[in-house]
Specification:
GO terms for molecular function: metal ion binding; metalloendopeptidase activity. It comes from Aquabacterium soli. With 380 residues, the protein is an alpha+beta fold. It has twelve helices and ten strands. The strands form two sheets. Strands 4-3-2-1-6-5 form a six-stranded antiparallel beta sheet, covered by helices on one side. Helix 3 packs antiparallel against helix 8, helix 5 packs across helix 7 and helix 7 packs across helix 10. The chain is rod-shaped. 29% of the residues are buried.
């Protein structure tokens, strides 16, 4: 019968490759090692004991760089258990598939909870402490980025641009007067651009709200619908949705970088990142509610927004969007020499789906809930 009070292992002194057969005993809180030319004691607390694994080797590291190698792992495990050595609760959990499975389930649940509730809460808290000047700086950077990638100077008549701009700003002023008389109006800059994203609109953190020429043409004769789109984008600015998206993406990136690697390029990509993110369903609800409020204050039925969704749906279904050759326009309609007429510009009728802006209005297809929300608002 084997004596559990002692164990034979291979001792390496850290200077020679030759192993020495050593007998190990535990007495008085010390590990005693004896063998040919070997007699030493080491405090148990100074020994780095290996974790027990199913198939791995057992190697204990001693303070002076020497080491003990188990000859038979099973006997080593029995000997260390007998003396209560190196067997913490983590090791015990690792040896149980049931406990490991429970730990995985708990970890997944925590990750889902952090993503669904912790991340939005953290972003709101951070944004509340972030001055609006940061929104302005990031918005300006983002505007330059999208100008380079997606936008071109508008071909709408200047008078039409100014008429729509004044209509939007006057409606915003009436809303602010109804909300809080005397309070300053949130500054916004309204831009009209040709674009490769089709009929669309989007807002940036600094208050820049961009309408594409295609959207204005699509809704010609429906000023109240354009007003609803403006109000929707204004809602994104008021609630700082773009900034909250950036914070959430940054937190996710930081968490992933802690787990997997460097995040030094994250901040450098911030302006371009805005163009590829999509608003959450909750953000869209908040922006839709802002649109409903502004329309009602200005005496417009919110249900007019259904027209927008219908027009966008009809636009997407046009056969020309699936037949590139059908999108070519006669030369007479193309831009004059010296004016940008890059393939994919608005007047060429091309809207490259691969270049779609995630934060743009029509990148969020209208579902039954959103349409019903605008219709139900008429009865409030």
């Amino acid at each position: 019968m084997r004596d559990d009070t002692s164990l034979t292992a291979d001792y390496f002194d850290g200077r020679h490759a030759q192993a020495i057969a050593a007998e190990l005993r535990v007495e008085g809180g010390h590990l005693h090692l004896t063998g040919q030319g070997l007699d030493r004691q080491v405090p148990l607390r100074d020994v780095r004991w290996p974790e027990r694994t199913r198939h791995g080797a057992r190697i204990a590291q001693l303070p002076d760089g020497s080491a003990l190698h188990a000859r038979i792992p099973l006997e080593w495990d029995q000997w260390t258990r007998h003396h209560g050595i190196g067997e913490g609760w983590v090791v015990q959990v690792q040896q149980s598939w049931r406990l490991v499975g429970i730990a995985v389930v708990v970890l997944v649940a925590l990750c889902i909870g952090a993503y669904l509730w912790g991340l939005p809460l953290a972003s709101r808290t951070i944004i509340a402490a972030t001055p609006r000047s940061v929104d302005h700086e990031i918005g300006q950077l983002a505007m330059r980025s999208v100008e380079d990638q997606w936008l071109h100077p508008s071909r709408l008549p200047k008078a039409e641009q100014e008429r729509l701009r004044q209509m939007f700003l006057q409606a915003q002023a009436r809303l602010q007067l109804a909300r809080e008389p005397g309070a300053p109006v949130l500054p916004v800059q309204i831009h009209f651009r040709r674009a490769r994203i089709g009929p669309n609109a989007f807002a940036l953190p600094d208050g820049s709200i961009v309408f594409t020429d295609d959207l204005v043409k699509l809704l010609k004769g429906h000023d109240e619908v354009l007003l609803g789109v403006f109000a929707h984008e204004l809602g994104h600015v008021q609630h700082r949705h773009s900034m909250r998206l950036l914070v959430q993406s940054g937190l996710l990136g930081a968490a992933a970088s802690v787990a997997f690697g460097d995040f030094s390029q994250l901040l450098a990509a911030t302006p371009a990142l805005l163009g590829h993110m999509a608003y959450s369903r909750d953000f869209e609800r908040e922006a839709d509610d802002a649109s409903i409020e502004l329309l009602q204050v200005n005496g417009v039925r919110p249900s007019v927004m259904v027209t927008l969704f219908e027009e966008l749906d009809a636009y997407r279904r046009k056969p020309a969007r699936d037949e590139p050759d059908a999108r070519e326009e006669p030369d007479a309609n193309k831009a004059p020499q010296g004016e940008d007429h890059e393939s994919g510009s608005q007047d060429d009728g091309e809207a490259d789906e691969d270049d779609a802006l995630g934060i743009a209005f029509s990148s969020h297809p209208a579902d039954a809930e959103r349409i019903a929300r605008f219709r139900d608002a008429d009865r409030r």
